[in-house]
Amino acid sequence: MSDVTPNAAELDGLPSKELYERAMDLAKERRDVGFLWELLRAIPAAAAATGEVDRAEFNLFHGLSLLEEFTHAGEGEVGEALRPMYIAYITEHSNGT
C-alpha cells in the first residue's frame, strides 16, 4: 500500500471492482476481520437497496450463498451500492493507522 492516503473524491472515480479489491487488500494487510464481517453484514442490505429483495432475504438465511456474494461484492449493482463503504474504509485506514 502507498503511504499517501487517497481522498474520497479520488476514490469515487474508480470502478467498484477496484474499490472492492483495494479495500480487501487493505483489510488483509491489516488483518481486519471486523471489516470483513461488516462487509458480510452489508451485502444483504446492498442487494435489497438495488431492488433484489428476494436475493437479500435468501442471503440472510443461507450462509454459503452469502459467502459467494462476498467474493463478488465489487461487481454489479451490489458493488455499486457498497462503494461508500469501500471508500470510507480506504480513506480511514490506508495511511497505516
Helix content class: over 70%
Beta-strand fraction estimate: under 5%
Structural class: mainly alpha
Question: How many helical stretches?
Answer: 7
Q: What is the N-to-C order of secondary-structure elements (H for helix, E for strand)?
A: HHHHHHH
Strand segment tally: 0
The low-confidence runs, each spanning 5 or more residues with pLDDT under 50, are none
Distance between the termini: 12 Å
What does this structure look like?
By secondary structure, the chain is mainly alpha-helical. The protein has one domain (14-93). It is 74% helix and 0% strand. The longest helix has 17 residues, at 33-49. The radius of gyration is 13 Å and the shape is globular. The two termini are 12 Å apart. The model has no long low-confidence stretch (mean pLDDT 84).
